[in-house]
Amino acid sequence: MKTKFWLPLLALAVAGCTLGHSSGPAAVPSANRTLVQFSRAEGLAGWHVENDDVMGGRSQSRLAVDDAGNAVFAGTISLENDGGFASIQCDVPELDVAAYRTIHLGLKGDGKRYQLRLDAARRDRHSYAADFRTSGDWQEIVLPFADFFAIRHGDRLDLPNYPGQTLARVQLLAGDGRAEPFRLEIDRIWLEK
Prior knowledge:
By secondary structure, the protein is mainly beta. It has a single domain, classed as Galactose-binding lectin (Jelly Rolls, Sandwich), CATH 2.60.120.430. It has one helix and 15 strands; from the N terminus they run αβββββββββββββββ. The strands form three sheets. Strands 4-7-14-9-10-12-13 form a seven-stranded antiparallel beta sheet, with no helix packed on it. The longest helix is centred in the first third of the chain and has 4 residues, at 2-5.
């Protein structure tokens, strides 16, 4: 998997998070931009778990780096106490993403459905979400920005889809309305034109 999705990395760094700006000159954007390349050396800087226990739920999850350098997000979804989700997320200073049209995930799932959420700005009270299904094998998930719909606390909003101008948070969410275990191995997240 590492070789399949490996492309030369842009030197990216933001204090406390591996998503960020290129440390080089801000010239013309390349055809792709790596947001995060998980590795044993980089660890999980800036990424944290947020489960439904913030609202009284009982879902449990963990995030770790495996021997291959992939992030492993795994746990069990519980529907008890009005729960039903587990997530990992990373906040960043707002990135200019206007030159890009899609976000890509290099990952191996368990055949279940997941959701990727993006926040355009830290001040926004809503996110933008797109669902995707995993195959059980390593795969490249391609999600066009135009497909991300506005969402708040799990409710779809009557707002325009993601404008694709700025990016302030990336969140992966597990929770498909069923009480069940889940597991995602994530190699890389990147943007393409």
